[in-house]
Amino acid sequence: QVQLVESGGGKVQAGGSLRLSCAASGLRFSFYRMGWFRQASGKEREFVAAISQFGGSTLNADSVKGRFTISRDNAKNTVYLQMNSLKPEDTAVYFCNVLSITYRNYWGQGTQVTVSS
């Protein structure tokens, strides 16, 4: 069974940084593109960033371009999200996801990021 476990969230002041991690198990990790999503209170879940199977290609939402960097370590079955220059509007629960029709409905518990002004 596929499991996704996010970690690394916390409370920071605006302008600060956090590094999120997502450990995946139950699948051949290097076969799949991976993504990060977030959901703020009372809002729809939204796309944040995606990365190709071996990290050669990434895509960021306009709202995080230049501030967030997605990366992965296939040896550790882990995808990361480095978040710099955080803003209060980045406050949300962050989730990782396997960008695959087969596994698209698998979600972890998420990790809370709170940015104070």
Structure description:
Helices cover 0% and strands 49% of the residues. It has 117 residues and is mostly beta strands. The chain has no helices and ten strands. The strands form two sheets. Strands 2-10-9-4-5-6 form a six-stranded mixed sheet, with no helix packed on it. Strands 1-3-8-7 form a four-stranded antiparallel sheet, with no helix packed on it. The termini are far apart. β5 and β6 form a beta hairpin. The mean pLDDT is 97.
Rg over CA atoms, rounded to whole Å, is 13 Å
Largest sheet, strands/sense/barrel = 6 strands, mixed
Average of pLDDT: 97
- Helix-strand topology string: EEEEEEEEEE
| CA(first)-CA(last) distance | 40 Å
Shape summary? globular
Q: What spatial order of strands do you see in the largest sheet?
A: 2-10-9-4-5-6
Strand content: over 45%
Poorly predicted tracts of residues: none
How many individual helices? 0
The secondary-structure class comes to: mainly beta
Helix fraction by DSSP (H/I, runs of at least 4) = under 10%
Number of strands: 10
